[in-house]
Write a structure and sequence with these properties.
Blueprint (H helix, E strand, L loop, with lengths): L9 E2 L15 H18 L1 H8 L3 E6 L2 E6 L2 H10 L1 H11 L5 E8 L14 H17 L19 H13 L7 E5 L5 H15 L5 E5 H13 L3 H9 L3 E5 L8 H16 L3 E6 L11 H7 L3 E5 L4 H15 L5 H10 L4 H18 L5 H7 L1 H8 L4 H12 L13 H17 L4 H7 L5 H17 L1 H15 L1
Parallel strand pairs: 3-4, 5-8, 5-9, 6-7, 7-8
Antiparallel strand pairs: 1-4, 2-3
Helix pairs in contact: 1-2, 1-4, 6-7, 8-9, 12-13, 12-14, 17-18, 17-21, 18-20, 19-20, 20-21
The structure holds adenosine-5'-diphosphate (ADP) and magnesium ion.
Adenosine-5'-diphosphate (ADP) binds next to helix 7 and helix 14.
Length: 477
């Protein structure tokens, strides 16, 4: 048996006595171990044996201790809890001098014997095909619409997009892992699918595993239940590109994290690309082990910012072209201005007015749009007062309440005041003169100017766009 008596292995377990007082197992001990290995198969059955016991490798024996290794901590704990007592008893039945069984973690200590297949042979092709089929059965399906072609690039997502393209184009691991994060509905999943599609297209021989962290956990738990843990590990460790969406899901799920951590390390060791998405930066992922968090930040961390007016308009224009619908520019601009929460909702709004026009056999106008989207737009207008807006804006910028009414023109005060006016126009039903009055008796043209200015800035200045978005969300959320 080739997996008995490992050589040249990295000992990663601190409490292993292997290095300090190692004794190469004698031929008799090796022989004994081989016998026990066979007995385990008979006693525990083929499935348990394959999943848990086959990977045990005899590393050393000394002073009545048999030291055997497994490739992961997780396996060590499992075997310790479930099988170690019985294993020791079996050893003792063979040799009464054995007093202890020590299980240590030695990475890479177990490699499944694979039949040697000649390159280019039918057998190899078949084996690759089987592997692909297996990986496809675990992967989540890809949305055919989520491609690079349909992804509109703007300032908020330029970095994440460039990084995603880079991963596909070079495939020499410019950074590993690629970690993409951002709020809900901002295009993380779209980018992930785009990468997967592109890899499949440009590198058909590569295997890509894409799945949500939730599904990863589900698959893992299922594998444990059916004693297929080894098989699970092998499958995940054999992919060329591993993509896990919404990694925040494994917060607080310790054994899943542990398993993921080992998979992660094994793949990085083999120079396989890993791509992760999350709703937060690695350092902000609470409930995730510190070791794992720091690993996640090893490569490139790219964030997707809240959308700007420009990006929203660009997305709507692309979507209009795709739907081949007659939507006036003014309606797109109106939507880009009003539906700012996320891209998913923005797309939903456009789909609704297009569908409505289709059914009602009506042209799309600003009026029909406002009518069809009444509920959606009202959410944003709900009982928000100018006082509230002023309060949130002053809090956000650390200003005094009086700054909203004062005549001060310093940029640090004037800009937030303009933002407050802009939000008052967007989120309340007040007229321009009414708004002006609430801001220290300003003229309605001043308010109009403020609204235009902020609209313009939201297209050019990511910081302003973000600030407006955050304040808007605290008001409407
Ligand atoms: P997330 O995974 O970040 O929650 P998704 O990737 O599911 O968000 O995106 C939500 C919707 O918005 C999808 O339909 C997606 O196609 C669309 N979307 C997001 N960003 C863009 C973009 N830059 N260009 C085109 N569509 C986008
Ligand atoms: Mg998503």
């Amino acid at each position: 048996m080739s997996d008995v008596g490992g050589k040249g292995l990295a000992v990663v377990q601190e409490n292993s006595k292997f290095k300090a007082e190692s004794l190469e197992p004698t031929p008799e001990i090796l022989n004994l171990w081989q016998k026990i290995h066979e007995r385990m198969r008979g006693e525990f059955g083929e499935a348990v044996f394959r999943s848990w016991l086959k990977p045990l490798v005899l590393q050393a024996s000394y002073h009545g201790t048999m030291e055997v290794s497994v490739p992961t901590r997780f396996m060590r704990d499992w075997i310790q809890n479930h099988y170690s007592e019985r294993l020791l008893a079996m050893c003792q039945e063979e040799n009464s001098e054995i007093k202890r069984l020590q299980i240590v973690v030695v990475q890479g200590s177990f490699v499944e014997d694979a039949p040697v297949l000649e390159s280019g042979s039918e057998a190899l092709k078949q084996a690759n095909q089987n592997k692909k089929t297996e990986i496809a059965s675990i992967s989540s399906p890809l949305d055919p619409r989520f491609t690079f072609d349909s992804f509109v690039v703007g300032k908020p997502n330029a970095l994440a997009h460039a990084a995603a393209r880079r991963v596909v184009e070079s495939m020499t691991l410019p950074f590993n892992p690629l970690f993409i994060y951002g709020g809900v509905g901002l295009g993380k999943t779209h980018l992930m699918h785009a990468i997967a599609h592109a890899v499949e297209q440009h590198w058909p021989e590569k295997t890509v595993m894409y799945l949500s962290a939730e599904k990863f956990m589900y698959q893992f738990v299922r594998a444990l239940r059916s004693n297929e843990a080894m098989h699970f590990k092998e499958t995940f460790r054999s992919v060329d590109v591993l993509m896990i969406d919404d990694i925040q899901f494994i917060s607080g799920k310790e054994s899943t994290q542990e398993e993921f951590f080992h998979t992660f390390n094994a793949l990085v060791d083999q120079n396989k690309q890993i791509i992760i998405s999350a709703d937060k930066a690695p350092s902000d992922l609470t409930g995730i082990d510190e070791r794992l968090r720091s690993r996640l930040a090893w490569g490139l961390v790219a964030d997707i910012h809240p959308s700007t007016y420009d990006l929203r308009l660009g997305i709507l224009q692309a979507k209009r072209a795709q739907l081949q619908a007659a939507v006036p520019d003014g309606v797109l601009e109106f939507l880009a201005l009003k539906v700012t929460s996320n891209i998913r909702e923005l797309e939903g709004a456009l789909n609704r007015i297009v569908a409505h026009a289709d059914v009602a056999r009506q042209a799309i106008t600003l009026e029909t749009t406002q009518e069809v989207l009444q509920d959606l737009l009202r959410v944003h207008d709900r009982r928000i007062t100018i006082d509230e807006i002023q309060k949130k804006v002053t809090e956000h910028y650390n200003l005094r309440p009086a700054d909203m009414h004062s005549a001060r023109r310093a940029r640090a005060v004037a800009r937030p005041r303009q933002i407050a006016m802009y939000l008052a126009k967007q989120l309340t039903c007040r007229s321009l003169p009414e708004i002006g009055r609430k801001f220290g008796g300003r003229d309605h043209t001043t308010v109009m100017h403020a609204v235009r200015k902020i609209e313009e800035l939201m297209g050019d200045d990511v910081q302003v766009a973000q600030d407006v978005d955050i304040i808007r969300r605290t008001l409407t959320g």
